[in-house]
Amino acid sequence: MATIEEAGRITGGATGFLDRERTIAKPGFSRWLVPPAALCVHLCIGQAYALSVFNLPMTKLIGITQSAPDDWKLTELGWIFSIAMVFLGCSAAVFGRWVEEGGPRKAMFTAALCWAGGFFLSAIGVYTHTLWLIYIGYGVLGGCGLGIGYISPVSTLIKWFPDRPGMATGMAIMGFGGGAFIASPLSVWLLGKFTTATHIGVMETFIVLGCVYFCFMLVGSIIVRVPPPGWAPQGYVAPKAASKLITRNDVYVYDALKTPQFWLIWWVLCLNVTAGIGVLGQASAMSQEMFPGHITPVAAAGFVGLMSLFNMGGRFAWASTSDYIGRRNTYFVFMVLGFALYCTVPYAGSTGSVALFVLCFLVIISMYGGAFATVPAYLRDMFGTRYVGAIHGMLLTAWSAAGIFGPVLVNYIRQYQIEHGVPKAEAYNATMYIMAGLLVIGFMCNFMIKAVHARFHMKDDEAERAAVNVGAVGKPAGA
Amino acid sequence: MQTVNHDGSMKLKLFLAWGFVGIPLLWGVLQTLSNAMKLFQ
After folding, report:
1. Are residues A413 and A277 in the same domain?
2. ipTM of the complex
3. A280: distance to nearest CA of chain B, Å?
4. A67 and A187: one domain?
5. Chain A contacts of B2, Cβ < 8 Å?
């Protein structure tokens, strides 16, 4: 392998600032600069989880103190988030290969343009009171920024941290969970500053947020670097032989779709996220209905905040743990422990044990976040590092699907139960058992995951040709 | 095949970069934590 000093001399040529070649690390560069670069992007796009802060103010843009007949309805505004989530999955899937081949700086810069542009277009939509402009702005354009920004640093981090890929991607994806922590109080503060007796300051808040996020993401795109060909961290020795479930070969992005492993991981992620996302959205109402008189609305808000913290912390903790116990074993833990905890929730409700209820959901939600953060490293183990970003992008469609399944399962089953005379405190029991059942299916899918067949591996000449065509650097992992 | 030892300027860059993302994140976490404490009141 080449030293980083030798690799530094490889760089050069007349290339644009955003090109991959210009991001190759020079001698003396520390790989620990890459996680903050990734966090610059993920902390910004994590704002999506705090979009609900704007819901109420946007229903009173005309009426100011209360909703006027021409004001937007909450149901109409709910579509903004849904459209953004759909475009997150779609753009990650469609642009994944471009992100991988164009390099992280170009991708992060594009994500910054889309994300900030989405806010600016939405500000115009608020100013002209045109809802479809917000659908296109935040939903479509911002959603593309979400998708491209989410996957852009993942493969770069995996290449910089071959010794700790789970921890590295866990740090970045933790930022996505933490973005709402910053966006929520910041948005409330900005709204307070810009709102007067005759005007709701949503437009100004969108403009300020767009500017702040653009600058923040720009910093990330400037400091990000890719490792030179052949680089390895100090003291790291790549295993001579591939372990059973960690390949040393690469699989081409579209060939990965032909493998059963891709679809098994797709279902594992989808089922785990379905189970988590359903309770995440309904945590406040569920806790109050299961413990009437014990959990007040204020305490429920605190419970939601605590869940957010565990969602974020779980991303880093579980992904880091997966470096030691293996990716498949980590998902086995998610499925088995999740099954036990979902089955325990009705018991906690029937015995009135708030502490047990809270404990169950905090662990469940940590595993929900952990599943997101561990999956890039799982894909890297299965399909190699070359196209892991693009493959990860395609896998995110599982998130979009879970975003529909989860809330629908929780809401409709609860409604069905109540309509059939089940007390509100017990209306979630059936849902909990169904969630536990989903995890059993997830366990079986995870159990069936074996190493990818050698016929899907890229041959050396294929990999070299692909590298020339797309300007990618480095040999394939297995070459 | 190893990274060279980091000089002072790289250490400064690391400090600034981590501070740039760490301070806002810490502020947000503390805000959320103070809200979460309402569960135990």
Report:
1. yes
2. 0.88
3. 15
4. yes
5. 3-4, 232-235
